[in-house]
Design a protein that fits this description.
Blueprint (H helix, E strand, L loop, with lengths): L1 H32 L7 H22 L2 E5 L2 E7 L7 H43 L14 H24 L5 H15 L6 E7 L13 H36 L5 H34 L8 H17 L2 H6 L1 H11 L14 H7 L5
Antiparallel strand pairs: 1-2, 2-3
């Protein structure tokens, strides 16, 4: 147990430092190196990086332990060995879990934007021959609408926060139910920690097991909140892929098609990461306790996943988008790219000749 604690603490501390470093670099590069053609997409990427930094800070403060036991799953924070009052620790557990919703809804909004940008660009190619102009549905991402899009993840996070606080909050029955496994696995007394937990079949004061419909209601809220962005990502991802493939069949606008493909590859990577880091493991941890199936190993991995995700997520954008990758190579003198951009096409000519598609 002592070895697990040391590894967990080391990973959590290193992850928050790396997350702040990587996301700060990303924000600087987005501000200074993004071409004009990227338009309001820059604001979305800055917003996403800022959310990741907040995610990491909450994780560093809480340093959570995730676990399951029979018909329960829970997130635990030690208040004995750290300078945190129980009230503050419980508040940051709720904030940390709400960051999950903020993150997945931010990804969903990215996919909606990319799909509308691709729709507009494909339509623009066709409209050139007709000598007409049209802004398309991408107009809903103009600056006057950005605040609405930014508020959606925070609304989802607020709902997740409320469910964690008021449905899965601490109570005597839950405390007694998870007491033995907390003392055995984490070597902690229940009086020395705070938690957020769901128990589907708790035991009452008389020793009788009963169904907690409140826990099932909270699980329904969690799964609904996760399903909406998951479906959005799948639908928009499939449609975007088809449109990107259609762009490759055109012989025009090599620069714009190249940039679209770079951003799309980054977005695909940023989809695979949350699907395997969030949707799949959290789906198992949330649902297997209903059947009292042991998944303690997977729950322990989630402890590390929550810590590492904010640091890993920006890496695809830095790797796949030439403007950011080349800037990093230049700063650190790692290597020199032979040809990062398509020859003969400048940012100025693109901003004059092509629509704002990304």
């Amino acid at each position: 147990m002592y070895k697990f604690y040391n590894i967990k603490t080391t990973v959590q501390i290193c992850s928050v430092v790396l997350s702040i470093f990587v996301n700060s670099i990303s924000i600087c590069l987005i501000i200074t190196k993004s071409p004009k053609i990227m338009g309001t997409y820059r604001h979305l990427m800055i917003y996403f990086c800022s959310c990741s930094i907040i995610f990491s800070l909450c994780d560093a403060i809480v340093q959570p332990n995730c676990q399951t036991y029979k018909s329960s799953f829970f997130m635990l924070a030690d208040v004995k060995n750290r300078p945190l009052t129980p009230w503050i620790a419980e508040l940051f557990i709720d904030l940390l879990t709400s960051c999950i919703a903020v993150t997945v809804y931010s990804i969903g909004i990215h996919f909606i934007y990319r799909l509308l940008a691709l729709e507009r660009f494909v339509w623009w190619l066709k409209a050139l021959k007709m000598n007409i102009s049209r802004q398309g549905r991408l107009k809903y991402f103009n600056e006057q609408f950005l605040l609405v899009w930014f508020s959606i993840p925070f609304l989802a996070g607020a709902i997740w926060f409320a469910v964690t606080r008021f449905v899965f909050g601490m109570n005597p029955l839950t405390t007694n139910y998870i007491r033995n496994t907390v003392e055995e696995f984490f070597n902690l007394k229940m009086e020395d920690c705070v938690y957020g937990a769901a128990v589907f079949y708790p035991i009452d004061e008389n020793g009788h097991q009963f169904i907690s419909w409140k826990a099932f209601f909270g699980l329904g809220c969690y799964m609904t909140l996760l399903t909406i962005p998951f479906v959005t990502i799948l639908v928009c991802g499939v449609k975007s892929f088809k449109k990107v493939r259609s762009l490759l069949d055109h012989g025009e606008s090599d620069f714009a098609r190249n940039l679209q493909m770079q951003l799309y590859k980054a977005l695909i990577a940023q989809t695979v990461i949350p699907i395997f880091f969030f949707f799949i493991p959290f789906g198992f941890v949330f649902t297997l306790p209903i059947f009292e199936i042991d998944c303690q190993f997977l729950a322990s991995l989630i402890t590390f996943v929550i810590a590492m995700y904010p640091a890993i997520d920006p890496l695809p954008t830095l790797f796949f988008v030439d403007y950011y990758r080349n800037a990093i190579f230049e700063v650190f003198n790692v290597c020199r790219c032979k040809k990062a951009r398509i020859e003969g096409v400048s940012d100025e000519s693109v901003s004059r000749g092509y629509p704002n598609t990304v």
